[in-house]
Design a protein that fits this description.
By secondary structure, the chain is α/β, with parallel strands linked by helices. The chain is built from 16 helices and 13 strands. The structure holds pyridoxal-5'-phosphate.
Length: 400
């Protein structure tokens, strides 16, 4: 018998496990609305034209495969901070931003979590309830204590704004508050600009450290600037913050693992020291990041004609999701005009948070072959418009 025989089976990942179950279903009606990955209307994965063009440029210039520095590709780090804060932002000019290229959103969050564990020991991280499930794994594995703040109000299918503020006020001073930059996952509910103002007030009063998770910049509204509004607003108010970025969705670079962890700080000396410690953390975790996707992103962001084309493609992807969202809404109303379905079109980004309970989700899957996460979230990115009517009748049936 193996000396590791005592090791128990780990539970399947609640999001990626959905795809595994989907693969075992042979029905023609099956729909995989679990993972948040963009698909075309024919359910094909989509490689952006700008990505293909950037790769062509890379082949032509015969780039080598030497190690990157620990902090990643310089051109990428410059581009990514600019994309986040806007070109020519004073924090960038004053070298107050420490940026480390890391392994997409997840790896960047993990480096940030390790940094918190090392340099802000004893601080609690506050996560929205609900949040993207992996946030909990990331902070737990980094040995950082986390709690939740109220975020979602079931009754209004909207933001639990008062509850959120109360919880952030009640949190010990100097806590870390994880905020979704835009298109909150899984709810699709974002604070309004006015509400962001009140959140920033509390963060400032309590000396909390905001930790933005920006996984959908440009993908939510189709505009990179609009989707970066919240972290830019905090930067405008000179609130020090951490920001994790991902290029999985907006550049469709899921498997290339392109992202960054940024620290927007009060002065350049602190930024330099913080970067050095992040390099120390990355060195022990994975040594240095992969180069291919970082080159793609830096070429797309750095060349005006490709940048313009990227914006168009992102607008196209965001537009398809908005269209299918509207189609689903129309079908739901047709199916059951007595229920208020307006939350579907109010929600932002890739997902719709349906309000289906775990047993109702079970019905969606067992009876209707619709695969989705247990929390009632569906990814509209995986819904072709010709399946919207089927999905609507499955949802209406499951609510019965
Ligand atoms: N943060 C949120 C809220 C997400 O939804 C995701 C992806 O689903 C990520 C971070 C990180 O994804 P990745 O590691 O692919 O960049």
């Amino acid at each position: 018998e193996s000396r590791l025989a005592f090791v128990e089976q780990a539970p399947p990942d609640p999001i990626l496990g959905v795809s595994e179950a989907f693969k075992r279903d042979t029905s023609d009606d099956r729909l995989n609305l679990g993972v948040g990955a963009y698909r075309t209307n024919d359910l094909k994965p989509y490689v952006l034209n700008v990505v293909k063009k950037a790769e062509k440029i890379m082949i032509e210039s015969e780039e080598n495969k030497e190690y990157l520095p620990i902090e990643g590709l310089a051109a990428f780090n410059k581009a990514t901070a600019q994309l986040l804060l806007g070109e020519g932002h004073p924090a960038i000019k004053e070298e107050r931003v420490a940026t480390l290229q890391s392994l997409s959103g997840t790896g960047s969050l993990r480096v940030g979590a390790d940094f918190i564990g090392k340099f802000l020991p004893g601080r609690t991280v506050y996560l929205s309830n609900p949040t993207w499930g992996n946030h909990k794994n990331i902070f737990t594995d980094a040995g950082v204590e986390w709690k939740e703040y109220r975020y979602f109000d079931k009754a209004t299918v909207g933001l639990a704004f008062e509850g959120m503020l109360e919880d952030l006020k009640a949190a010990p001073e100097g806590s870390i508050v994880v905020l979704h930059g835009c298109a909150h996952n899984p709810t699709g509910v974002d604070p309004t600009r006015e509400q962001w103002g009140a959140i920033a007030d509390v963060v400032e009063q309590k000396g909390h450290m905001p930790f933005f998770d920006v996984a959908y910049q440009g993908f939510a509204s189709g505009s990179l600037d609009d989707d970066a509004w919240a972290p830019r607003f905090f930067a405008e108010r000179s609130i020090e913050m951490m920001v994790a970025q991902s290029y999985s969705k907006n550049l469709g670079l899921y498997a290339e693992r392109v992202g960054a962890i940024n620290y927007v700080l009060a002065d350049a000396a602190a930024a330099k020291r913080v970067l050095s410690q992040n390099k120390r953390i990355a060195r022990a975790l994975y040594s240095n990041p992969p180069v291919h996707g970082a080159r793609i992103a830096s070429i797309v962001v750095g060349r005006p004609e490709l940048f313009a084309e990227w914006n168009e493609e992102m607008g196209m992807m965001a537009g398809r999701i908005k269209d299918v969202r509207q189609t689903l809404y129309d079908e739901l109303v047709k199916n059951n005009p007595d229920k208020d379905w307006s939350f579907v079109t109010r929600q932002i980004g890739m997902f719709s948070f349906t309000g289906l309970s775990p047993p109702q989700v079970e019905n969606m899957t067992q009876k209707h072959h619709v695969y989705m996460t247990k929390d009632g979230r569906i990814s509209l990115a995986g819904l072709p418009s010709n399946k919207a009517a089927n999905l609507a009748s499955a949802i209406v049936d499951s609510f019965k």
